[in-house]
Amino acid sequence: MGTHNYNFTEQFEFTGKAKTLSVIAIVIGIAAIAYGFSNHDLHERTFANLLLMGYYFACVCMSGAFFLAIQFVAQAGWSASILRVPEAMAKTLPIAAVILVVIVGSGLYSHNLYHHWYAPGLTDPNSPNFDKLIQGKSAFLNAPFFMARQIIFLALYSFFAVLLSRLSNNEDLEGGLNSYRKSFKYSCIFLVIYGFTQPIFAFDTIMSLEAHWFSTMFGWYNFAAMWVSSLAIIAIILILLRKSGYMPWVNNSHLHNLGQFIFGFSIFWTYVWFAQFLLIYYANMPEETVYFYKRFEFYKFWFWLNLVLNFLAPVLLLMDRDNKRKENSLLVVSILVLLGHWVDYYQMIMPGAVEEHNGFGFIEVGTAVGFVGLFTFAVLTALSKKPLIAKNHPFLQESLNHHL
To answer: What does pTM read for this prediction?
Structure first.
């Protein structure tokens, strides 16, 4: 069926311009962080940007593992030939998890993050800083339990991410269905754990920055953002690899599938965003509306840019079937989606971490560039360790002959 000319032992070589640029980006990020910490007045802003990018980094890697698990549980055939890319993202998760735990822990104990609930006297009735609402949440929002949840959740996600990647490697070496069956079983377990804990992870890491406010939709709002971002990254890597002469078996139908997912989940993200906004707007309760008041008052430009990049751009540009199948069109939309969800996380984090908008410049841009470089270096290094195709995947022939 035209599949015998492919080189199933081909490996990606992470050298040259890509490696050099990623290292330069990491150096820029280190310089931006050092600049932020060199000025005491910029510490909160620097920690907020570190949290933004550390969380973004961890979330897309987590979603790489989620992508793998979904494919195994659904017994999907179309994706069998592209699984090495989300596998590389999943293998990077332990690095991202350690970085995020360090950022969260150091920001918490230095009082540069989470000071709405972790500050002296907030739970002491005899203190002038006493906050009855925070005292009521203290059984859940206390530093030891908070950090324990961060470590346990990220450790669990990392364990399953690495496990699924190793099973794929064993499948290459041994053949047969034993590794695939194990992948199916462990994916089922992972999805149950992930489904119940991911909203709590989002509540802890991001929503607790504004501990007086809460939304039961916030976890799924975060899930939509991290999931569509990971789909965009998978699409970008596949397109760039294909342009560089790798993975010739990836065809326009594979891109079409990814484009459909990006299109659909961008609409889902907008639905959850609007539903959360509408309920708070309609209820008109001061303790709820303060969340959007801050974003209207101090972050209005970012508020509207968020909707343009994350809703209008993917919907208008991917509405047409042909655009989902064209490399350049899908590449542009995927980049816009990634930028859009950086704006999305910026909107989530900054009002709770630094209150009013207190500047935008080298710290924001440099930190983002640094983490992009780190992500690129780590993921492409992982990608270069194994052949670019899972040659013994039971549905490989279906994927190689996938046409829509």
So the answer is: 0.94
